[in-house]
Amino acid sequence: IEVSYSEVGIALCQRKYTLDILSDASLSDCKPSDSPMDPLVKLDNEKGELLHDPEKYRCLVGKLNYLTITRPDISFAVSVVSQYMSAPRTTHQAVLHIVRYLKGHLHIAGYSDPDCLEVTGYSDGDWAGCPVDCRSTSGYCVFLGGNLVSWKSKKQSVVSRSSAEVEYRAMANVTGELQWIHMLLAEIGFSVTRPSTLHCDNQSAMHIASNSVFHERTKHIEMDCHFVREKVKCGELKLVHTRSEEQLADIFTKPL
Questions:
Q1: Measuring CA to CA, which residue among 141, 76, 73 is closest to residue 109?
Q2: DSSP E strands: which ranges in the chain?
Q3: Are 171 and 198 spatial neighbours (Cβ–Cβ below 8 Å)?
Q4: CA pair distance 141, 245, nearest whole angstrom
Q5: CA–CA separation, 197 vs 248, rounded Å?
Q6: In 184-211, which positions are buried (b, 16+ CB within 10 angstroms) versus exposed (e)?
Q7: Measured on CA atoms in the order 9, 15, 17, 18, is the torsion positive or negative?
Q8: What are the tens digits of pLDDT across the range 136-191?
Q9: Beta 237-241 vs 137-144: how paired, if at all?
Q10: Cβ neighbours of residue 46 under 8 Å, at least 6 residues apart?
């Protein structure tokens, strides 16, 4: 990771590392792609001809995983292809698509502003997005002082039976991350007095967070419900409804 200092702040970059990935994949002179993933391609581990030697594919995926440290824009795409280690040829093409996207987007930098300690999170989820096991993908991003400092895109470990359940599990994940960031800031001597703000675009999930009555439709997510509701009740978390068009965490659950 390249770190550069200026009067504006600190910038993190992996441009040289990205160029090395392009070279390793023999795509230094390739035509760039506009998006990290083709939304029309549905990957399936059981279909298509397998690669004879998937070792190079796995090595490339591993390098892309490390690149997501500073590149949230490829987090979802890399999370998806990481699930297919047996590497059908269609999945390998999806990995090369990510590399071609990097060709046209070599430099994305983040700047830190230590004077503002407002912590804000966005959470999102897609329902039954995986065509193989019908599991959903959770995504979130966290801003500190207006700067993106934490993000994740990950397939959920269980099959959710409603979109509200998917969204609530995503809310629970980002709530844990917000709590960890507060503890980290306290350890290094910064006091954050304002509650964290969590943006969600699902009204049902937000209603569950404020409703203390469980019924047969919500008992199966009771643990996550209590965790988020506890933070809301004690004033550490403030929930804000956000329109889907303004949901920044969308890039962690969808190809585009």
A1: 73
A2: 2-5, 10-13, 119-126, 137-144, 147-155, 196-200, 237-241
A3: yes
A4: 16
A5: 14
A6: eeeeeeeebeebbbbbbbbebbbebbee
A7: positive
A8: 899 999 998 888 889 999 988 888 777 788 888 888 899 999 999 989 988 988 87
A9: unpaired
A10: 132
What the block records as the tokens of 114 is: 């230590």
Question: Looking at residue 162, what DSSP letter applies?
Answer: S
Coil, strand or helix at 38:
coil
Calpha distance 124→128 (Å, rounded): 13
Instruction: Provide the CATH topology of domain 115-252.
Output: Nucleotidyltransferase; domain 5 (3.30.420)
In angstroms, rounded to a whole number, what is the distance separating the alpha carbons of residues 182 and 248?
21
Beta strand 119-126 with 196-200 is parallel
Token output for 8: 């504006």
- Residue where the block lists tokens 């300690």: 117
- 21: tokens are 């990935």
DSSP 50: B
Domain boundaries, the chain: 2-104, 115-252
| pTM, rounded to two decimals | 0.81
Structure tokens of 222? 């009771």
